[in-house]
Input
Amino acid sequence: MCTQTLTFLFTDIEGSTRLWENKPDEMRLALARHDDLMRSAIKRSGGQVFKTVGDAFCAVFEGALDAVRSAAAAQRAIESEAWPQDTTIRVRMGVHSGTCEERDDDFFGPTVNRTARLEAAAHGGQVLISGAASRLLGDVLPQGMTLTDLGEHRLKDLSEPLRIFQLDIDGLRTDFPPVRSLDNPRLRNNLPVQVTAFVGRVREMEDVRRLMTTSRLVTLTGAGGVGKSRLAMQLGAELIDGSGHGVWLVELATVVDPDAVPLALVEAIGLREEPGRSVDETLITLLRERSLLIILDNCEHLLGSCAKTVDLLLRECPEVAVLATSRQPLGVVGEQLYRVPSLSLPVESTSPSDLSRFDAIQLFLERARAHD
Output
């Protein structure tokens, strides 16, 4: 455990997939130049690049001021660069401070995760600063830079809102659209705030997302308390991108009447029953032309009704997808099952220094920190 407060700068290129698809040769040259500019700006400000993933940079600094200087220098250099035709690079950045886990020249833990979420909420050319980092800056900012308070926002980790500031740099753009947080009206959803952080489950997230690209119905199964609901909600948050009609959670734990499942779905999405129509007819009429993801949570005590409603949606609403959680399969044609495993545990031979590699230990540490 690193007890020192560090500041992290995470960056990536906005729209890089599209650029690679449209201009691969030009993008290859542009990416090499982008990498040079990023490394130079980080090094000059005393930072250390500890990880790169594709075009994304993860850097750490001893002080928040150094991280801000680096971000501003990088954005200025990127803005003034003569990029290849139709391959203009725009980089989004996030700066956040806190303590973290360090091992094998890499960093882990909630601080790192929140920095990644903060960066993902930014637009190309924008630098977002967390409240924690801004407090370390105090009133000291380099000349030509100011902070604009953007208020509190829920990032896609579903935990408590984070105070966010925008770094305004003289000569560069400052009029960005609303940040890509769950509070952005374009990212339509009803996902609730979670009182605890989402821990681990990297492989499970990848596995389920892969299943969702091939099936419109994926059901997470497993024993009670294994984490099906939390995994489903985190997947929903990850999949909100502003396209379509959003992600909607339908909580069925308190629904007793099987006939009330369609009504619970209508109410969760914020729709209204239409006079003279059954609830099923209302549901189909309203969703037939919509593209959205429905999370049906806790289906096991209403299997028959859930199966009937989901089957109707899949047949009549071609752009609707369903992610269900249940101790048992729904039994609907086309259903893909994913059994959620228990969190990974260390074995007897695991050394103390390696304990935090395991999800169960990370969860224990996270809950212990939350308590004290």
Summary: The mean pLDDT is 91. The first strand starts at residue 2 and ends at 13. The chain has eleven helices and 13 strands. The CA atoms of residues 197 and 366 lie 8 Å apart.
